[in-house]
Specification:
alpha+beta; three-stranded antiparallel β-sheet; 7 helices; elongated
Amino acid sequence: MNMQEQVKEPEEWNCPMPDIARLIGGKWKLIILQILIFRGTKRFSELKRGIDGVTQTMLTQQLRALESDGLVKRKVYPEVPPRVEYTATQRAIDLTDMFHAMHAWWEKGQ
């Protein structure tokens, strides 16, 4: 019996995977979330330095999408120049177990 025969998806089950992939999928969103969840609030420049290869434009786009989806909170301080900080929301912090599970899965396969 192959894997497809062993795991059958109930007809009535409405899988949320496409919506989840839209929220956290892509090259940069999981990395941004990992930093904010496990290392705390960061300024834009700290995130940019901490993510190898991300452009300023792409980081801005990804942060805006994460903010729009309720996973990141953006706070602007009225200073000159303005200071902007990004923080994981509780909805993002609820992904902590998923990050631990992915880490365990990776270690198991090594």
